[in-house]
Design brief:
The structure holds 2 protein chains of 2 kinds. By secondary structure, chain A is mainly alpha-helical. Chain A is built from 16 helices and 4 strands. Helices cover about 75% and strands about 5% of the residues of chain B. The longest helix of chain B is centred in the N-terminal third of the chain and has 31 residues. The N and C termini of chain B lie far apart (about 40 Å). The chains are: A mainly alpha, B mainly alpha. At the A-B interface, α1, α8, α14 and α16 of A face α2, α4, α5, α10 and α12 of B.
């Protein structure tokens, strides 16, 4: 055993002791006047076992025990990369799209439900990606736009009976307006201040939704929102008419959100490779330099907020139509953090990365339903861990050009 | 007038608590320019440790015979516990990321905040936990203005902690090292200051103050909840920004202003009570828009803000 690995093990042991010291008072001091040193042990032992396994693997890795695996894995990855870059893009997307379209035919209700959720979050993640990943503005109140979209459709549907399809653009417009209202005073700030102010705005919108009883019915939420409807052609007694049909079946709802997600993916992709996207990237990399080169940074940042909000609004309107119920509960800060985590986990600025991030954060916890309680705990831990070991995300975006400090 | 004075005292009490939490934010931000999101959760953990220890002591009858001694023990132990917790958080989630992008550290802090909040929920349950009451009954009346013993306690404790902190920062060696590190990390490292240790100390001190604030909030409102840290944390951050982030006097003034505005708005503005949480955010936005460096802040260049 080398000196370095011995040091690691000593440190690991100290960390375990430390963890017990932190854990014990929360579990072991009882209000009835007893001190219990054993209550914290089951939790501690689990953490210790998992930690030790990780440490053993780590030590073996540094000693080179996995070197025999390294070569084959590397060559497989190279081959995969080569095949990927040689295949035309449509040959990858077409089967995927076909699979997505056929999805409701070979799955049950539960799986469809999960997938609808995943697709909503894909829209949200890609929308936030415009703000965070492309323009580099940290937004911690993104879910507010989702809320604006959802309440727009909910109120329009309840009070004016407007149809879903009419409300979809309306929700986008209202969300974009909210984006501008939030963006206008805040975009002069940079970095951390922007993060905290957007968080504040998100909370303000949630508090308003919660307290404006006459408009939003407060914490009780709004019930009885209509599902999206379509007109189906029908021939009755020889005359040709259209029959109005509400799409209440989950399978049909799925297609709407699939359409929304595909629209979002194409739109974000097009934005990314447009002049506007370039301007955003310039702002992200160096705002001052971008401004000096003639990029109207204020306008483009505002545009980024508005565009991001549009997709949030669309997703929100769909959410209201699908649940047929909205309440402020759905638009808390935790949701903002969840969407942000998807963007960061998947890889900022990379579309496949964010789709993967949404899948990982929405679908994976469904597999571990038994551990429901630990879900947010693991989520928080994973977020920190991800930053420590892979800050660029699972599938990092390919950077356009090269930066001076990257050239060796 | 009496009504105003009464609200003024209430505002002062609340503001003192916000000031204590804000100091932790402002000190950490002053040294490593990080919004320590987990600070609000450490405040909540302090409140929980307070309730655990006080119930334990109460079950041994100490709270009936020597209530102030019991409170003192709970306060000191809880402050110590939170200091260790904060050092652990710093060691795990922030130190390895020193020197990487700001976004990475911020997200790591966010993750830590969610982790701690849910850890608290899993170990202590989702429901409110009630503080043992009865030993802080009574108070003083000036005409129609009632100052409860609880408020006196909070005000005295806050003031003495603030004085203690000032002495620590301006009169001791470690305080000098903290100020030096805040001013220039590289230079202070060159003259032999161990910046990692200084940063860990800063986290510990801030956490101890937050723990004291957590206990006082628990005593004042009578109960604690696992998610009680989030909103006060954000308000305290607003207070730190309002006062000029990185500036300790500013954080105290900012805390008092936020607490005062919240209470007075609830008392005088129609529907103010329902929207009381909004005012802190509105102040924050207005301050950042018109006075980006806060009340006491110096001009800092773009790279810092």
């Amino acid at each position: 055993m080398t000196h370095a690995s011995k040091k690691h093990w000593i440190f690991f042991g100290l960390a375990l002791v430390w963890f017990y010291v932190l854990l014990w008072p929360l579990l072991g001091i009882k209000a009835d006047g007893t001190l219990d040193f054993t209550a914290a042990f089951p939790v501690w032992i689990r953490v210790a076992v998992v930690g030790t396994i990780c440490m053993v693997l780590f030590t073996l890795k540094t000693m080179g025990a996995f070197r025999f695996l390294h070569g084959p894995i590397e060559s497989v990855r190279e081959n995969l990369n080569a095949t990927y870059s040689r295949t035309p893009k449509w040959m990858i997307f077409l089967p995927l799209l076909a699979l997505a379209i056929a999805y409701p035919f070979y799955t049950g209700r539960y799986a469809q439900d999960v997938m609808v959720n995943v697709l909503i979050y894909v829209c949200l993640g890609l929308g936030l990606n415009i703000v965070v990943g492309l323009a580099g503005l940290l937004d911690l109140g993104y879910i507010a736009f989702y809320g604006v979209g959802a309440y727009t459709y909910a109120l329009m549907s309840i009070h004016y009976g407007l149809s879903f399809w009419l409300c979809l653009p309306l929700a986008a417009i209202f969300a974009a307006m909210a984006g501008c209202i939030i963006g206008y005073p805040t975009l002069r700030m940079r970095g951390d201040y922007l993060a905290i102010v957007t968080l504040g705005f998100g909370e303000i919108i949630r508090i308003i939704l919660n307290n404006w009883m006459s408009l939003t019915n407060g914490p009780n939420g709004i019930l009885g929102i209509k599902a999206p409807g379509i007109y189906l052609p029908e021939i009755v007694d020889g005359s040709f008419t259209f029959e109005h049909l509400y799409m209440k079946k989950l399978g049909m709802v799925y297609y709407i959100v699939l359409g929304l997600a595909v629209f979002t993916i194409i739109a974000v992709h097009r934005l990314n490779f447009s002049r506007v996207g370039r301007a955003w990237e310039a702002i992200r990399e160096d705002e001052t330099a971008a401004e000096l080169m003639g990029v109207d940074t204020f306008r483009f940042k505002l545009l980024a907020y508005a565009m991001g909000a549009v997709f949030g609004g669309l997703a929100g309107a769909f959410f209201a139509a699908r649940m047929r119920f909205v309440s402020p509960e759905s638009f808390t800060f935790l949701e903002s953090a969840l969407v942000l985590a998807m963007v960061v986990l998947g890889g900022m600025g990379s579309i496949p990365g964010i789709i993967l991030g949404a899948l990982a954060l929405i679908a994976l916890p469904e597999l571990f339903r038994d551990f429901e309680l630990y879900r947010m705990l693991a989520f928080g831990g994973a977020m920190t861990l991800m930053m420590l070991i892979r800050p660029a995300g699972l599938i990092p975006a390919k950077r356009m050009g090269k930066r001076s400090e990257e050239e060796e | 007038m009496d009504y105003f004075l009464q609200q003024f005292v209430n505002g002062l009490t609340l503001g003192g608590v916000y000031a204590l939490v804000a100091l932790g934010y402002t000190m950490v931000y002053g040294i490593i320019q990080l919004i320590n999101f987990a600070h609000g959760e450490i405040f909540a953990a302090g409140g929980y440790m307070g309730v655990i220890l006080l119930s334990y002591l109460a079950s041994h009858g100490l709270m009936e015979t020597h209530p102030w001694l019991g409170l003192g023990i709970a306060l000191v132990l809880s402050m110590g516990y939170c200091a260790i917790l904060a050092i652990a958080v710093e060691r795990i989630a922030y130190r390895p990321l020193r020197g990487s992008s700001r976004l990475a550290v911020l997200l790591s802090a966010l993750g830590m905040s969610i982790f701690l909040q849910n850890g608290l929920m899993l170990t202590q349950g989702v429901y409110d936990k009630a503080y043992p009451t009865g030993f802080t009954q009574g108070g003083i009346d000036f005409g129609n203005v009632h100052i409860s013993l609880m408020q006196i306690l909070i005000l005295t404790l806050t003031t003495s902690l603030l004085i203690g902190l000032n002495l620590l920062v301006f009169k001791t060696r470690i305080g000098k090292a903290m100020r030096a590190t805040a001013q220039d990390k590289v230079m202070s490292a060159l003259v032999g200051i161990n910046s990692n240790r200084v940063i860990a100390t800063t986290f510990a001190i801030g956490a101890a103050l937050a723990a004291a604030a957590g206990i006082m909030v628990g005593l004042y409102y009578g109960s604690v909840r696992y998610d009680m840290g989030f909103v006060p944390g954000i308000k305290a951050f607003a207070a730190a920004v309002l006062g000029g982030i990185g500036n300790m006097t500013g954080a105290m003034i900012g805390g008092l202003i936020i607490g005062m505005v919240e209470i007075l708005a609830a008392a005088y503005i129609p529907y103010g009570g329902e929207y009381k949480d909004v005012f802190a955010f509105i102040i924050l936005i207005l301050v950042l828009y018109f006075m980006p460096t806060g009340i006491m802040g110096e001009n800092v260049d773009d790279t810092r803000v």
